[in-house]
Design brief:
Elements: E1 26-28, E2 31-33, H1 43-51, H2 58-69, E3 75-82, E4 85-93, E5 98-103, H3 121-144, E6 148-153, H4 158-178
Parallel strand pairs: 5-6
Antiparallel strand pairs: 1-2, 3-4, 4-5
């Protein structure tokens, strides 16, 4: 027999921030919306956003499968620390110091396919700008530590993405042989 015990009430669980301010939380589909975030425009939008994966996206799986088929062995979601920044590369070749990021057109503002939502546009504009800014910081930090960074957009077919990775690996190996 299972007995349900209620979780202890803490200031954080009651919506009180570290500063002691009660956060104005609203709910959408039974889930709290933290203060500072806009209300989702519908429950369908909430469901779609909650369904977005952080790793093992369709693009990542297709590109990794193609690389593996070509005989490459790599690390996935490798945590790399550089210049005080910790980041997980979608695919990494640590020995060659090659970090590959497979970026979504929406989330990283692809110049070809990126768009800005019409709902909650102020929130999304700031959010997507921060993503691009973070991408540039990661590029600078990894480059300063000797990593080569390759960013591939989600609209690039897996075989062409694998071609780009293969070319970058060939270049990394040529540079290593020259030293």
């Amino acid at each position: 027999m299972r007995v349900s015990v209620p979780a202890p009430s803490t200031p954080r669980s009651r919506g009180i921030s570290k500063a002691g301010v009660i956060a104005a939380e609203s709910t959408q589909g039974g889930h709290p919306t933290p203060a500072g975030y806009p209300m989702p425009s519908s429950q369908a939008v909430t469901a779609v956003m909650r369904g977005n994966r952080r790793s093992d996206t369709g693009l990542e799986v297709r590109v990794r499968s193609e690389l593996h088929r070509r005989g490459f062995r790599f690390r996935k979601q490798l945590l790399i620390a550089a210049c005080g920044i910790r980041v997980r590369a979608d695919v990494a070749f640590p020995r060659q110091r090659l970090a590959i990021f497979l970026d979504g057109c929406f989330w990283h503002r692809c110049p070809e396919h990126g768009n800005s939502p019409r709902s909650n546009s102020a929130y999304w504009s700031a959010k997507l700008d921060r993503n691009v800014e973070r991408d540039l910081k990661v590029l600078a930090a990894l480059s300063s530590e000797g990593w080569r960074v390759l960013r591939i957009w989600e609209h690039v077919p897996a075989d062409l993405a694998a071609d780009q990775v293969q070319a970058a690996l060939t270049e990394c190996m040529a540079v290593a042989d020259a030293c």
